[in-house]
Specification:
single chain, alpha/beta, Rossmann fold, six-stranded parallel beta sheet, two-stranded antiparallel ribbon, 46% helix, 11% strand
Length: 369
């Protein structure tokens, strides 16, 4: 399976108009001149250069991404993508599959961790159902993007067809566009799907060429016996999918609807110059797949935290990413990313509101000011 060269061609008279799928369009580069100006501004603030550590670079990167002298992440959109996984038939989770649909309802009702964090941040939460075995209750707070009642069992067959993959990618694109239209300054993608750490681990193994022993973790809380079985399941899935290395094909073979939708959302966000804050293990697997599709996307990604899932460190290393936080979190939902937003806001406030040496009448160490 290869990336589609063209989605469709429409003809009006003698003029043929060819459209490409959005994932074949590279994102623009951040505005380098804004980054240079932001760095110069940082060096003129009333502090020794570099004394605020990574907060300084965070503000400089956001200024370049947003093409603004005063970067900001006051308007944040958190989107939780949810779907079920056929691999649950292999007994890889400590929780029943019905929990996916139940948690969708919990997100919408405001009772989940990411719901509480969203409220604390004054952010916006969108929940997208891409397909569950047990349909969640109808709720105005849930976007219905159902593709199928979950993916196929990736041990026995490809997790999704090419058409299903493209539907999931496009659902992610629509979510990014809604965030842009709402005026969002930062996009966070979260995940929900019983069995999805198995899918993400298989995808990560294939993308990195590493063994299940390196990347498979306990997920929802498996004991040692359950973890060993999960590794066997991932190993079997990798044998079935073969030596394929195309990232889109690997998403279809081993991914989940929510993982593919996250990848699509990140690609679309980068194309729209919308910075992305990446959550934990599952979301980072989606981010790596998306960066393999369009390497230029990496310039639009920030990384929130280091998950307790052992494979997350390998994914971060592959992306040359250093997360902002390390709190031992492994919940998913976008909760780790939401927790990191106040740090990003602090970086922006310091950049935008601190006095410069010349304005405050403070010597800069060279006899100026």
């Amino acid at each position: 399976m290869r990336p589609a060269e063209h989605c469709a061609a429409a003809t009006a008279g003698d003029d043929a108009v060819t459209t490409q799928p959005f994932w074949l369009m590279p994102p623009p580069a951040p505005a380098e001149d804004r980054g240079v100006r932001a760095r110069d501004h940082q060096n003129r603030l009333t502090k020794p250069p570099g004394s605020l550590g990574r907060l300084e670079q965070l503000a400089v990167t956001l200024a370049a991404q947003q093409r603004r002298d005063r970067p900001g992440v006051d308007r944040v959109r958190i989107v939780v993508f949810a779907a079920d996984h056929g691999v649950c038939a292999e007994g890889v989770s400590a929780f029943p599959q019905a929990v996916t649909g139940q948690m969708i309802a919990n997100f919408a009702a405001g009772g989940a961790a990411v719901s509480v964090l969203t409220q604390s941040l004054g952010a916006e939460l969108e929940v997208i159902n891409l397909g569950t075995v047990a349909a969640p209750p109808a709720d105005d707070g849930v976007v219905d993007e159902t593709i199928a009642p979950g993916t196929a069992n990736l041990v026995r067959e490809p997790a999704m067809t090419r058409q299903q993959l493209e539907a999931a990618l496009t659902a992610g694109e629509r979510a990014a566009e809604r965030a842009l239209q709402a005026g969002s300054e930062l996009f966070i993608g979260g995940d929900m799907g019983i069995g999805n750490t198995t899918s993400a681990a298989a995808l990560a193994c294939a993308l990195l060429g590493e063994s299940p022993e390196s990347l498979v973790g306990p997920g929802t809380g498996l004991d040692d016996q359950g973890l060993a079985h999960k590794m066997d399941v991932v190993r079997a899935a990798l044998r079935r999918s073969g030596a394929e290395n195309d990232p889109l094909t690997l998403l279809a073979e081993l991914g989940g609807f929510e993982i593919a939708a996250l990848a699509g959302a990140f690609l679309a966000a980068g194309q729209r110059r919308l910075p992305v804050l990446v959550d934990g293990f599952i979301v980072t697997a989606a981010a790596l797949a998306a960066v393999r599709v369009q390497p230029g996307l990496r310039a639009w990604l920030h990384f929130a935290h280091g998950s307790a899932e052992p494979g997350h460190r390998r994914l971060l290393a592959a992306l040359e990413a250093e997360p902002l936080l390390d709190l031992g979190m492994r919940l998913g939902e976008g909760s780790g990313a939401a927790t990191a937003v106040p740090l990003m806001r602090a970086a922006c406030d310091l950049h935008n509101r601190m006095a410069r040496f010349e304005d405050a009448g403070v010597s800069d160490g060279d006899g100026h000011g």
